[in-house]
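User: My collaborator and I are trying to settle a disagreement about how two of our proteins should look. Neither of us wants to argue from intuition anymore, so we agreed to look at predicted structures for both before our next call. Could you fold the first one, then the second, and keep them clearly separated?

Assistant: That sounds like a sensible way to settle it. I'll keep them separate. The first protein:
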Amino acid sequence: MTATQGKYGLPLEVKFCRKCTMSNQRPASTVEFRNVRGQPKQSLVFDEHGVCDACKFAELKKQIDWNAREQQLVELCDRFRRSDGRYDVVVPGSGGKDSVMAAHVLKYKYGMNPILVTWPPAIYTGIGQLNFNKWLDIGFANYTYHQNRKVHRILTQQAFLNLCHPFQPFILGQKNLAPKMSALLDIPLVIFGENEAEYGNPIVDNEKPTRDPKYYSAEGRLDDLYLGGVSARELMDRYEFTKADLEAYLPVDPNRLLETGTEVHYLGFYLRWHPQETYYFAVEHSGFVPNVHRTEGSYSKYSSLDDEIDWLHYYTAHVKFGIGRATYDSAQEIRNGDITRDEGIALIKRYDGEYPHQYLADCLEYMDITADQFHAVIEDARTPHLWVKDGEQWRLRQPIWEKG
C-alpha cells in the first residue's frame, strides 16, 4: 500500500465515471499465468472530464465506418478461406449469445467453415447445457476439451484460496485452448466474438482487431508460470502432477503459432457488437433460452449463465473491488443506450453484491472447502478503503448512490 494506492494497487480515491456506473476500482485484464497474490492491478483510466476509457471507446465506435470494417472482415475471410471445403476458422465458445452469433454469421453470411472449440464450465448449469446443445443443433461440429477433473478442481480451489479468484482456471482455458487447437488442427484463423477490452482495458487495446498474444502465449520456465497463484513447478511437486496434467492451463509456445501462422481476431472489431442485439440474434437463430428468473447479483437473465462458478466469481469481484454483476451489466447497457445512468444506479443499489445463495453449496463442495474457509478467504480479500463494518454487516464506504 502506498500514499495513493490501496490493496490490489487500486486508487485510494474512489471515482465513478460521469457517463456510466463503473468506478476506477475496476481492474484491467490480467495475464493469468503471471497472476500471484499481492500483484498490483492496472485500474480503469478516467480522463480529465471524469469519463472512463470504456465510455470513450463507446463514443469512438459511433464514428467508425462499419461498412469499411465489414469489408475488412470479408478480406480476412477470403485470405483464410479454404477452397476444398475443410474447416477454415476456429470459433471458441460454450453456446452463449456471443459465440452463437459469431459462429452463425461466419458460416451462413460469410461462407466460412467454422469448427467450434469449447473449454466447458467447471459446473454446468442446466440452462448452460441446454443452450450449448441448441448451438450444435443448428449445424456445427465441436471439439470440447474435457479437463482432468482432479486437476481442475484443485486449481479452482487454489485460485480461490490464494487469489479469491475461483474463475481463473476457466479464463486460462478460455484464452489458451483456441490458439492451441489452431496449431493442432492447422487452422490458422481464430475468431472470438467481442473484445473484452471494450469494458475497461486501456483504450489502445481496442485499436487492433487481434488479441494480444501475451494473454495466451509465452516462452517460460515452469517456475515462472503460475496457476492459482502457485508456480507450475510447485504444483507438480505438491500434487504429483505431470507437465501433461497442467499443459492445458499453460500458455502455448509462440513458435508453434508461428509455424501455423495463427491469428486471433475479434469479430466485434469488424461488426458493430451490441449485447442485447446479440441476445436477440441468438434467440432467433439457435433458440437460445434465457433464465426464467433474474441472475443473483444483477437484474439480467441472459448473460454468463452456463457456469455455477460465475455466480461466485462476480461475488468475489464485489468483495475485492466493490464492483458486482449489476455494475458490470448496467455500465455496459448505459454505454449502449439501453438504460439511463440513474436507472443503472438504482439497479446497483438493489442488486449489486447479492450473496450467491443459489450455487454456493455446489461451489464449496466442488472446491472441497468448508463454509468457514470460504468466509475467511472472503474477509481477508476485502479492500479496507472500500469497506467498513457497521455492526455485523459490511457496507461500502462510498457507494455510487451516495457519491453520484
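The second protein, kept apart from the first:
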Amino acid sequence: MDYYNKVIESVHVRFLKGNNFKIEKPVTVMNYVESENTLILLHHGTLKMGEDQELVNESEVLFIPKGQKTQLTFGSGTKKNELDMEQFGDTKRKYLQSLSFKEIKTTEEDCISLIQFESKVFDVVNFFNSLDIPPFIIRFNDRIATLVEDIIKEIEVNSVGKERSLKAQTEVLVIELLRHILKNRLFTEELSTNSTYFKDPRLIDLFNFIKANIGGDLSNKVLAKVANVSEDYVGQYFKMLTGINPQDYIEYQRMEAAVELLRTSKKSIRDIGKEVGYKDTAYFCRRFKMMYGVPAGKMRRRESLINSQ
C-alpha cells in the first residue's frame, strides 16, 4: 500500500478540458486515438469499443489512455459511416454536436460527456501512457461517473475558485481511477513495472535533462554523461528501467512538446519542428503524422475547432 501511495503522490494531475456531445449520426472510427487521457461517460444511447465492439452501458465510463488506439462506435443504427481518425477529426461536427449539461438531463437522445486530463510522474513521464494500459470500460463505479458529471457542471459555471475546483476534482478523479484499477486487479503487471521510476535517481536526472533540452543534442553520448554510465550501456540501462529505448522516448517527448506548441502558439510548423529538435521539416511532419495519425497542420485546426465549441 505504501508503494502505491508513493506512486499517487508522484503523479502530477492537470485538468485540460471537458465537453458534452449529442451524437447526431452513428459513426465508427476505426483507429480512434486521443492526444490526452480521456474519460467518456455515456448518458444515453450506444457506445462500443474495440474490435469486438464491447458495449458501454449507460452511466458507465470508457477510459482511453493518451495515445492508445481503439475502434470506437458512437450511436446505433444499420447505416453508419466507417472513418479513420483523420477523417473523423475533419468532420467531427457532422457526428457530434456540443450541448450543455442541462440539456443532457432533459433529453433522451444519444449523448456523452468527455473529460481530458494530464497525469505525469515527476511532471515528466506520462503515467498511464508509460504503463501501456489499453482502453477499458469502467463498470460498476458510480463514484467515477459522478465525478465526471461534477467536473462537467463546474466547467459550465462562472464561480469564484472555478479553476482550483477543477484541479481538485480532477485529482480526486485520477485517484479513484487508480483505486478502481487496483481494486479490480487490472493491469497489475504494468503497474508493478512503473516502480523503476521511483528507485533510481539517475533515471529521474535523465528525464529532467531531456525535458529541459528537448530541442538540443540528446544523443546517447550526451545521455551517458548525465547518467554517469558508458555510452555503450546507456541505451540498455534506460530500456531496462523503462521498457523503451531512450531515442524512442525522446521522439515521443519531442512530439508531445510539438503538440503543446501547436495548441498554444502561432508559430509555423517549420519553427515548431526546429524548436523540438528536428532540423528537417519534412521528416518532422512524416514522424508527426505517423505518431498521431493526422498531419500537424490538421491537428492544429482540429484543436482550434474543438476549443471553439
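Some points you might bring to the call about the second protein. Residues 162-183 form the longest helix (22 residues). The chain has 15 helices and twelve strands.
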